[in-house]
What we know:
Layout: H1 2-5, E1 11-16, E2 18-31, E3 38-51, H2 52-61, E4 65-73, H3 77-89, E5 93-100, E6 106-113, E7 116-123, H4 131-144, E8 150-154, H5 163-175, E9 179-183, E10 197-198, H6 202-208, H7 219-230, E11 233-237, E12 243-246, E13 252-255, H8 268-281, H9 286-300, H10 311-321
Parallel strand pairs: 1-4, 1-8, 2-6, 4-5, 8-9, 9-10, 10-11
Antiparallel strand pairs: 2-3, 6-7, 11-12, 12-13
Amino acid sequence: MHILENFKGKKIIVLGDIMLDKYIWGNVSRISPEAPVQVVKVLKETFAPGGAANVANNIVALGSEVFIVGIVGDENPAEKNILLGELNMRKIDTSGIFTDAGRPTTLKVRILGKSQQLLRVDYEKDSAFHASISEKILRFIESRISSVDAIVVSDYAKGVVNPSLISNIISLANQNKKIFIVDPKPKHRELYKNVTLITPNHNEAVMMAGMSADDEYDLGEIGSNLVKSLGSSILLTKGEKGMTLFEKNGGVTEIPAKAREVYDVVGAGDTVVAAAALALSAGATLKEAAVISNIAAGIKVGKVGTSTVSIDEIRKELENEY
């Protein structure tokens, strides 16, 4: 698909909750005599960008440039330095990352035994940050928006997304005719009206519709209602059932997932929004972008951890299917 060739040279702003993912890899062969829990014999520890930083990592892995925008903390300087080091190593522009004093850098620690996740431990603070940092973020995006092709908001509800900031950035995007894509959190649904594309998963869509898992619902109706109430196209991701694209023009497209073994769904949503942003920036229609995103997510879940996907992997899958 020629669209993939157009990924190179695209520039994307990724705004959101930046995290550091730590993986503790080990073997499990016995139960602790102290409590009914597994004993993990640690073999190694690795780090990777997480949250919005994983979206940025996926974009760079697909051959494009990215400005990552968000905050880190100075409460745990070692984690902050490791995260910035991981981003710099991947040639991700970190000039839009600001430090919020007295706050920890969000850290997700995953403990794995034989590549299976056993436990996750989170270090985070999800309260709003100082207004002066919000102003710095807005000024940074203002200075870069004319040179980029799209803006992605990766919302993990850890404090970066707030009404004033998002309202101003959406206005900037509209004024500059930029693609605006959101990987949402349901609590912020009202902030994301009239954007290009919103990518909720099944549970997020249900909650955004004001329903619970116990309610009887029709996902098709939920998707259509979200389009009408938010004025945005919706790419609803459904795991092993694929995706459904609901367009503002009323079109609905089912995109089935390709059957494959699922090793790890961590970061699959990040892969979807990264691929969608690049595809749309490269001239794809919403349907074409959804197909590419679906393929990228399918490749990702076959890998362990917050892994990335390459252009060659997507191209190979497209050649096999189309």
